[in-house]
Amino acid sequence: MALPDFHLGGRTALVTGASSGLGRHFARTLAAAGAAVAVAARRVDKLDSLVDEIVREGGSARAVALDVNDAASVRAAFDAIAAWRGAPDVIVNNAGVAVSRPLLELAGHGIRVNAIAPGYVATELNRDFLASNAGQRLMARIPQKRFGDPADLDGPLLLLASEAGRFMTGSVIAVDGGHLVSSL
Ligand SMILES: NC(=O)c1ccc[n+]([C@@H]2O[C@H](COP(=O)([O-])OP(=O)(O)OC[C@H]3O[C@@H](n4cnc5c(N)ncnc54)[C@H](OP(=O)(O)O)[C@@H]3O)[C@@H](O)[C@H]2O)c1
Question: Which of 48, 92, 125, 139 to mutate to test the pocket of ligand 1 (most atoms within 8 A of CB)?
Fold first, then answer.
């Protein structure tokens, strides 16, 4: 019996917002699974050190300057990735906020669009708040009684990025220690 294949060898991934927090972790996870990873954000010095780290760990990565608010910057980033490896197979659209747009029409082109909905994970974005009294009160309301760790997202990330998730599109996977369902 063939088991689901989570390996990403030969694939190219783009992670936006890879200079810190979850994006940085996602990039390392995808590289460890075998993908060549374009790591993109505005702070290129941080991307360069991430690339060094991934290469030291035996992976393949390239830093790409990107401001997702600037269409010319987005085009230039995709051009740089195309010159390196061609079009990315996997895009982790991690920098930014939610926008409602019809994307499931993409399924006909073999492009799957899914989302991971993390609960609270300590990063630069929220570290001070999570350590505060208000943050600790919030933690008490999470059924698993802790905030998330970036590694808690590895399983869903590899599921969505690999062939193991080949029939999944339009899915939103909550990874939040039960936080969302406990508030219903
Ligand atoms: N941490 C959590 O608990 C949590 C929970 C649910 C959802 N999320 C979502 O997960 C994503 C990442 O959050 P995080 O906690 O990892 O935050 P973070 O540590 O603050 O990282 C944010 C990343 O986005 C990049 N970024 C910001 N503006 C950008 C722009 N205009 N163009 C390109 N890159 C940009 C930043 O890099 P530069 O400044 O170098 O550009 C940085 O790498 C966010 O969309 C957040 O809403 C986080």
Answer: 125
Q: How far is CA 32 from CA 62, 79, 116, 117, 132, in A?
A: 14, 25, 19, 22, 34
Domain assignment of residue 148, yes or no: no
User: Which is the closest atom of ligand 1 to the Cα of 23?
Assistant: 16
Ligand 1 atom closest to the Cα of residue 124 is 19
Place of tokens 């969302």: 180
Q: Would 180 be classed as within a structural domain?
A: no
CATH of the domain at 54: 3.40.50.720
Kindly state the average pLDDT of the residues 65-94. Answer: 98
Confidence of residue 102 (pLDDT cuts 50, 70, 90): confident
What is the domain count for the chain?
A: 1
Q: Is 50 a domain residue? A: yes
